[in-house]
Amino acid sequence: MDVKGKKAIVFGGTSGIGLAAAKQLAAKGAQVVAVSRNPDRAGDLPQGITTAKCDVRDSDALTALFKQHAPFEILVSAATGGDRAVGPFLSMEMEGFKASFDKMWGYANVVRFGTEHMTDDGSIVLVSGTPARNAKPGQIAIGSVGGAVEQFVRTVAVELAPRRINVVAPGMIDTPMVALEGKAREELYTNATANHLIPRAGRPEEVAHGILFVIENDFVTGTTVDVDGGWLLS
């Protein structure tokens, strides 16, 4: 797909990976709507990007948003959907574990209600994470949710054809989701990636390149593309 002149809706599009994808799509000439629960927090966005407010867990709001911007060709979701539980499973609050799956339900809503307003040649991309297939200690929630997202895409791709749907799975990426600053932030990423084949944190722009790849390549669907610096092999 040549994205020039196409309309793209990017959830989580005002921060981190979603913002990087929105910028790259806009740079290639797409008309981009960057959707967030808190769009007012977005900084200066380049020309070609507009913002909208929506919570992916609100099906009525999603339906209204999609109708407003229909028809569109590109749908990307990097929205977290809510808080994520961390830590050992046997000491985890189960409500927190359940809440982590808000990301999965948000993705399901985006695909379910968004597909109705897409063109038949549309492309959908969801952002998961390599812990779906190689989780570290304390990553039971993110690993389980990521596994659900990847299996969802493999299964639903058959029903959505000829529309395409894919997953991009980042490894350790330096994004605003990590609240630490300065030396503490640097040490976190250094320690977390020390055994990776590429021993550093990735950049949101590098994950966005993977998102653009599966959008532009018309022969890719129902698959997961890893952008992980060797996480899976570490």
Describe, in plain words, how this protein is organized in 3D.
The protein has 234 residues and is an alpha/beta fold. The chain contains seven helices and seven strands, in the order βαββαβααβαβααβ. The protein has helices at 16-27, 59-69, 94-100, 102-114, 140-160, 182-192, 204-216, and strands at 7-11, 31-36, 49-53, 72-77, 118-127, 164-170, 224-227. It has a seven-stranded parallel sheet, sandwiched between helices. Strand 5 (118-127), helix 5 (140-160) and strand 6 form a beta-alpha-beta unit. The protein starts with 6 loop residues before the first strand and ends in a 7-residue tail after the last strand. The model has no long low-confidence stretch (mean pLDDT 92).
Summarize the amount of helix as a percent range: 25-40%
According to CATH, the homologous superfamily is NAD(P)-binding Rossmann-like Domain
Q: How would you state the average pLDDT, rounded?
A: 92
Instruction: Provide the CATH top-level class.
Output: Alpha Beta
Would you list the SSEs in sequence order as H and E?
A: EHEEHEHHEHEHHE
Poorly predicted regions are none
Shape: globular
Number of domains: 1
Number of strands: 7
Write down the Rg: 17 Å
Fold topology:
Elements: E1 7-11, H1 16-27, E2 31-36, E3 49-53, H2 59-69, E4 72-77, H3 94-100, H4 102-114, E5 118-127, H5 140-160, E6 164-170, H6 182-192, H7 204-216, E7 224-227
Parallel strand pairs: 1-2, 1-4, 2-3, 4-5, 5-6, 6-7
